[in-house]
Amino acid sequence: MIxxxxxxxxxxxxxxxxxxxxxxxxxxxxxxRLFTTGGTIQSKGAHRQKLMEYSDGKVxxxxxxxxxxxxxxxxxxxxxEISNIGSGGIDTPKLLLLAQQINAxxxxxxxxxxxxxxxxxxxxxxxxxxNLTVKSDKPVVVVGAMRPYTxxxxxxxxxxxxxxxxxxTPAARDMGVMILLNDEINAARDTTKxxxxxxxxxxxxxxxxxxxxxxxxxxxxxxxxxxxxxHSEFDVAKLSTLPRVDVLYAYQEADDAAIKGFVAAGARGxxxxxxxxxxxxxxxxQGIVVVQSDRKGSGRVVKSEKVAAKGQVTxxxxxxxxxxxxxxxxxTRTTDPVEIQRMFDEY
Length: 347
Ligand code: ASP
Hints:
The chain is of the alpha/beta class. It has 2 domains: 29-231, Rossmann fold; 245-346, Rossmann fold, CATH 3.40.50. The chain has 10 helices and 18 strands. The protein has helices at residues 24-27, 61-66, 92-106, 123-133, 156-167, 257-264, 277-281, 305-309, 320-330, 337-346; strands at 2-5, 13-17, 31-36, 44-45, 54-55, 76-81, 111-117, 140-143, 178-181, 184-187, 192-193, 202-203, 211-213, 218-220, 245-247, 269-272, 289-292, 313-314. The strands form 4 sheets. A 10-stranded mixed sheet has the order 1-2-6-3-7-8-9-10-13-14, with helices on both faces. Strand 15, helix 6 and strand 16 form a beta-alpha-beta unit. Helix 4 packs parallel to helix 9. The longest helix is centred in the N-terminal third of the chain and has 15 residues, at 92-106. The two termini are 40 Å apart. Bound molecules: aspartic acid.
């Protein structure tokens, strides 16, 4: 059975309830909903050796789950298709729709958890967005693949199987949104795609993984300490858009051309990426919040009186693209840099 769900911004969501065995053992299984958005995990190449050139949007959610009958032994699974596109196409309406649909699902008492399929290129941005906007402590796991569905030794099925195992596990409650590839369970906030090609691409450089999805059991070794999900103050239930925030890449001899472009395009915030302070300092008093992050991908941008005196905010160890996500949500509540610094300290 497939039926459309009502949703925002003219986007359609297809919901399917998969046939389940009508025995008592199955009825006792945890209920997990799969939200599909696309990416390599749902892509097909021309032949089995095609590892890099393949087409997004070829594998439907039903094909994905029918390929893995083992899922029916670990969860009662339903699915909702948000999109079937490469992750470069995930935009604000789709992010909001995803958060709203996951929140609606997890509010059901019978819901145990949620899994999201996603392209790996921007997976960490969606995962961090959900980490800040999901209003439940039930597990939410974002999963992708580095090899297409058609490849020799594809990684998607094992990743999806493990993601459903984690979403169905009570031990995964209140861990914030998690990223699962290559058997590793990583925290959305701390994790970045670190390699363009290898299957062990997701890495939490400063913090390490939360745990592992191993064959004997799901094992956790730490908990995230930043505010997330049920503890977050951000609420996107009634939002249909978010403030524009741009990221300024730092490099030798960069001038203010990009900043002028961002301001002309209506940016309410700009995230810097290190070593580029003068043109950004000139924005003081123009109603644009500046957050200082860094392009290196690990380590903290520590708080300093000098930066605060410029009316700017420091991003701790959030990389620029994740600082952008937090700044967009922060700007839905305030434009006060002191209050926004408090949010960057807590989330
Ligand atoms: N093209 C893919 C994307 O949607 C890449 C991936 O999934 O790894 O990001």
